[in-house]
Every structure is written in C-alpha cells, then in structure tokens.
Amino acid sequence: MNNALEPSAVALGTAGWGGGWGVEPLDDGAWAEAERVASDALAAALEAGITTVDTADIYAHGRSEQTLGRLLAADSGLRERIRLQTKCGIMIGGSPLYGVDSAAAVESTRYHGGADHVRRAVTDSLERLHTDHVDTLIIHRPDPLTRPEETVEAYLELASAGSVGSLGLSNMGVAWVRRFDDALRAATGGEEGIACLQIELGLHHRGLVESAVLVNHPDSADRAVVGEAGGLAELCAERGIALQAWGSLGQGRYTRGTEQAADQDREAAAVVAEIAGRLEVSGEAVVLAWLLKLPWRIQPVVGTVNPDRLRAAAQAPVAADRMDSLDWYRLWTAARGAPLP
Ligand SMILES: NC(=O)c1ccc[n+]([C@@H]2O[C@H](COP(=O)([O-])OP(=O)(O)OC[C@H]3O[C@@H](n4cnc5c(N)ncnc54)[C@H](OP(=O)(O)O)[C@@H]3O)[C@@H](O)[C@H]2O)c1
Fold first, then answer.
1. What is the pLDDT of residue 225?
2. Which residues belong to any copy of the NADP-dependent oxidoreductase domain (predicted)?
3. 105 and 120 housed in the same domain
4. 95 lies in the same domain as 213
5. pLDDT at res. 333
6. Checking CA distances to 163, which of 175, 212, 227, 323 falls within 20 to 30 Å?
7. Span from the CA of 250 to the centroid of ligand 1 (angstroms)
8. Contact between 50 and 310 (Cβ < 8 Å)
9. Which of the residues are catalytic?
10. Which among 265, 241, 244 has a CA at the least distance from the CA of 255?
11. Do residue 64 and residue 21 come from a single domain?
12. Using CA positions, which residue lies closest to atom 41 of ligand 1?
C-alpha cells in the first residue's frame, strides 16, 4: 500500500523508548530526554540502513508510540523513510493505557483479539504515532477466547480503510499461525496470507533450531523445545511468512565482553569475540548473523537505544556473508554449553 519500503535486514525495536515502564506520566524534562534518546537511536539506525521500526501499543504504556509520533510530527519526510509496525492484543494489568473505559478488563493482564478492541487499538495507535497508517499490524499474543476469523475481519476493515498494510502475528505456535493464515486466506480468496511472525529467537533462545535436531532425544523433554517450536519455522517458510526475532541480541549477554559475561555465557562470548575479530565485524553482527544464516528469512529486531550498538548490529548481513558453517556450528555448540547429540 502507501509505503513501498521493503523490510530492512535488521529491524529497530522500541520497547526501550518512552522513558521506561513506570505508570506515572513523564514530566517535561523526562519527555525531552525520551525524545533525545529515541531521536539519536533512529538517526543512527536509518543511517545504517535499519528502516523497519517495531513498536507496540503497550510499550511504556503508549509512550513508545508517542515518542515516535513526536519524531514523526517534527519531520514531515520521516514517515516515508521507515517501514512501521505496531502491535495490539495485550492489555497489561494496571496500565493507564486502557484505563478509561475498561477498568475491569485491565485489573490483571489479559489478551484481546476481539474486533472492537483491535479497531480501537489501531485508531489509538495511529493517533499516538501521528500517522494515518502502519505498514504491518501484529497481533501480540493469541487470545484463546477469540476466533482468528473475528480478528482477521477487523484487520481487513482497517486495511481497506488504508490504516494497515499487512497482518502479522507474535508469540504464536504452529496451531495458531495455521489458524490465522487459513482465516486470512479464506477471507481474501487466497489473495493474502499472514505477513510475518515475531517470536523470541536468538543464539540464547534457540528452540526452533534445537527442535529440528532433538526430535525423539531425551534432551528435548528437559529443554521443552520440541512442542510448539517444532515445525514452526518450516510452516512459516512453506506459507511465505517471514520470521522476526525479538531478543535477538540476547540483551547483550554475548557482547558485553567475556569478563562481564555470566558463567554459562562466557564460552560463547569468547567465541563471538574471536569470530568478530577474525571476520572484522562487530560482536553484535556475529550474534545476529547466526540467525541470518538460517534458511528462514529471519529479520532480527534489536532493542538497543545505543547508536554505536545499532551501527554494530547493522553489520549483520556482512557478518553472515563472511561466516562459514564451521563458525556457525561453533557458536551453536558454545551457546548450548554441550556438544550436539
Ligand atoms: N513480540 C514480543 O512479544 C516482543 C517482546 C520483547 C521485545 N520485542 C521487540 O523486540 C525488540 C528487541 O527485544 P529486546 O529489547 O528484548 O532484545 P535485545 O535487542 O536482545 O536487547 C536489547 C537490550 O539489551 C541491552 N544490550 C544489548 N547489547 C548490550 C551490551 N553489549 N551491553 C549492555 N547492554 C546491552 C540493550 O541496552 P542498550 O539500549 O543500553 O544498548 C537493551 O536494553 C524490542 O525493542 C521490541 O521491539 C517484542
């Protein structure tokens, strides 16, 4: 639709934007600082070719979207330089975000895929973001009480109004991805399927990869990896659903330096550093390249606000080009802390 930008190799996550997760409103000074941090991060990201921006209604109780909205309002050319995705479907207990007319619903956290909720969430997100459309709407988590057909119907209304470009999912397993994709394909006569699935995935969180090799192996029970992760990547590949990896830097556990690494991460941090030095790329790029080497169209989403780390992460495709399968297996083995079976 309106925005022709393709997804960038690495995406910018904004869960750390908006002055943190406190429920109290920010004062002017805190808002100015939140905008400065976001503006510096976005400038570094764009300059390094990271143009997909990932946010969600719940991040910092709406303030992540608001912060991005302030940047968009201040720069009329910015919207067309980014591919923008937001999420809805989680209502956080006690959050001020939905407090006005649904207090009962948010006493404790719940998920909500209902059509009215999705319509309202998108309207509110667009207002906070100071834009008339997002390129992708992601359903944040499955709501066991709502049929995917209902959520899909709300999405299609929003899409035909030009408010949303495509539909993505997050934190869903094989069964839900299949249900959503079937529902969207049925409603569009096969014209459109789910665009992407965002799940936690990285060198530290390897269920999709482990499940492929631990089938029928005793370790699979302990690691709880085969269940929902088994077959998920293959299903997405078959159906043309791109994978987005959240937590892809492992919150820095392999790139803080071996001294700072936790005991169980030290060996992998050392391997990351050695490969980074030899391939002349950053450690962050090595960590992300481990994902890019997989044959599943994975787009890592990085949550750092540090401009240097964003520039380092943007080297991931170069690192993937230079990394051979020997290095890839060394990283995997070091991260799992045990030889492959
Ligand atoms: N769909 C979902 O349910 C879901 C869930 C979580 C996140 N997400 C999305 O994915 C994005 C990324 O997720 P994430 O933030 O959990 O993962 P991440 O990118 O693995 O971690 C980012 C965090 O790690 C810190 N970090 C990274 N490298 C570091 C280093 N070398 N030294 C010290 N700190 C380091 C960053 O701090 P600095 O900022 O100081 O660098 C930041 O707080 C989020 O922003 C959000 O957009 C989606």
1. 46
2. 10-316
3. yes
4. no
5. 96
6. 175
7. 7
8. yes
9. 59
10. 265
11. yes
12. 304
Å from CA of 304 to ligand 1 middle = 5
C-beta of residue 269 within 8 angstroms of C-beta of residue 302: no
Spacing, Cα 217 to ligand 1 middle (Å): 32
**Ligand 1 atom closest to 304 (CA):** 39
Tokens of 130: 């100071």
7 plus 136 within the same structural domain: yes
Q: Which amino acid is at 280?
A: E
Cα distances (Å, whole numbers) of residue 203 to 20, 24, 208: 26, 35, 11
Are 178 and 327 in a shared domain? no
Q: Are residues 108 and 190 in the same domain?
A: yes
Q: Which residues of the chain have pLDDT under 50?
A: 100, 103-104, 224-226
- 246 is a domain residue: no
Same domain, 210 and 194: no
**CB burial of residue 217 (10 Å; 0-12, 13-18, 19+):** middle
Distance 141 CA to ligand 1 centre (A): 19
Same domain (yes/no): 1, 62: yes
User: What is the CATH classification number for the domain harbouring 111?
Assistant: 3.20.20.100
Atom in ligand 1 nearest the alpha carbon of residue 170: 1
Binding-site residues, ligand 1, Cβ < 6 A:
13-16, 54, 170-171, 198, 246-252, 255-256, 301-306, 309
